[in-house]
């Protein structure tokens, strides 16, 4: 319900932008967005052409979305816009090998009058292999902006839906004027989630139904072949499900199976072994015990680009019994094991990549740094973001390295990409340059001792697609931690509503907290994180499913 | 080493390493000395040793000596009995009910076995080495069950599934399937008559399905055949497998009339592999159960939790047993599973069964009902080394299991085990959530989404 509200406001905003755009700009370029040139030269930058390759000072020439040259003595044509790369490090653009950025799940169709929950139509039961991610993708989504800002230039987008949501597509995260599509019909998305209130309702039902759909697709193909070449053969029943599944059965495209932990990995692999399709597993969070299994399976592996929340560890109290201490120790051990998994997987020789589904792109680099601190080499980390991903989605000819002839998808950062101090300054997608503001890092050492003071009354403003809004954030000290409240425009219509803040944390100059908004009977979590400097804060507000939006606040001096 | 030899050597190495990565389930060796050995099938022996080698009971006798490398355990003053078998459990399953159709024979509980569930360890602590992980009772024909061996600590679900156990499937009669489908959703079955109709129609369809494939396969073998393959349907194939005697039915049932109905349906379709579960009114049709089925698996004394279980008696197990029906006592609960030996002892209070008869209720009898009596269920040479050592006689109120072995490997030791036996710890939860009502009665778990009203939800247990 709330989603509809948001969509309505989104639509309103877009319409406004559209009309104002038309009135201002000249006729030859009604959008006013066309760039002056399509030729760029990044001069004298530290170029990291592929994972593990030593960084080399070089210039890069780009024209019409393609890398035309990488080297020391390039001649720069007059029409090239020069990006001075002297203090910058250049990497191949990152690739999100399984993404739902910019994807909106289509409304469920209405149930027919004669609906029978035990044999629902495929479309209602979440079996929609004919759907394409392209139809659900919106390049202007803030999720796409977030992903691009984190250095991602290409995404393998998967549709959202039930147990078989549909086919994926490979897109560049480029210009909003373009479809950005590189390839459609790349893979079949699948998961183990049941439909609600109908067959198949649970993982066991989904697995049985998957076998059923697969086997009957096979048989339908046989019947069709027989029908096509013989007389006296009854007409085979052809339906959209079997037609769309046919490429999977032919092993022309892989199944991208969403799995979270080792048990789900084994479930997807058991289906694969039984039926014989090509398999890529994505979304893995807990997989230490199946590293050998993954290695031997031949399946592609895409980890969820996220590390677990460490609040369960940070909230551990000092003054507890030995039994509780022992339990704390196990939580800590579980956490350490979780963040060390990626390193072990790489060491075992599994060339994995990442999926950002369910992860926050804003935290991607922090997640990478944590994995690297826990044993993942920088080479393997970069490979996961670039070359491995390109391999798994079949795009290594055009992407994954900084090389002559590849798509001009690049990330330019202020330092080595995995350094905590480094920031992404430009992301070049498809030859189009996106610039990002570089924030001056505060020098406050490390550890909480140097944390800024955040208590006080703050007035904030935020920009969302629904327009700008604001309110007050009140934060007080409570023992070692903080407590607080936030007010905001009541989603129910008029006036202000308020919520209690939870997980208030201060790390260095960064303040973060979470609050829940109740809208239309549903509760939605909002993550806020910002940089505090004196009496101002600048940051972003992350609303699950909708992406992140800027927020700024000033403290009332009193 | 010449080339040929080297190749053979390498091939041997390769096959060895392959065997290693596809490792057999772990098997151990142990000598349990000087206990009171309750064999269940061959009497009780004092001051007797049990030698398990490579997972198999090698020798039961006196003054056995341990082969080199085999650990000896002193069981002086203790009781040694076969591992307890629970013929009705939902422990270690991530999903219990695919409730969404009156027949879901195609679903496999083996797909959703969770070897990390702490309930397995708790069951071991109650001496239970094998449980029958069943689909729930929301459908007339539920899913195919998994027989589990409680090998605690395994990562791979396949390693706790008893691979040499025959296939079994869940059926359910009476109030649960009629409530979920009839009252909850206006579909057949709305009544016990509807339940029977679902069964008979299902089996008749399965016969047609089987014939369609047989005809097709026969036609296809002819040259130049243009025969069209029938639609694949694992649901009907599974029902056909039941008709072919490949699967044992375990049917949730309470009332005598519905029990007798299923006996008649089974006889009409030539089905012989049938076990009744719960069977509270089994005592009324005990001779029929004895004659036509593989018996009944009952509660010791649970009743009155809903209308169809008011007419019940704690003498049920004893009456069934005295009438010659194979009878077992089960838990259907992650709590009761920890003290099935107490549940078995109740047959002595209510029915005066002998020690051996009472112990058979939780060992050899459930083994027979699961089709594994040639492998487990008693202490006999040649059987699998599933053994429990008790302090106190297992039928005594003071009995405490000390050690539990599966295939000769010790998975529970009351003295040596660490306090925290969890295998999986959440990195993001300071305190694991504890759900007070979750562990009980899971027969109707995962059916919530089929019920629209709170009143229906209220009545969902069992």
UniProtKB/TrEMBL annotation, chain A:
Residues 1-26 form the signal peptide. It holds the Pfam family Amidohydro_1. InterPro entries: Amidohydro-rel, Metal-dep_hydrolase_composite, Metal_Hydrolase, Metallo-dep_Hydrolase. It comes from Algoriphagus limi. This is Amidohydrolase family protein. Keywords: Signal. Residues 327-433 form the Amidohydrolase-related domain.
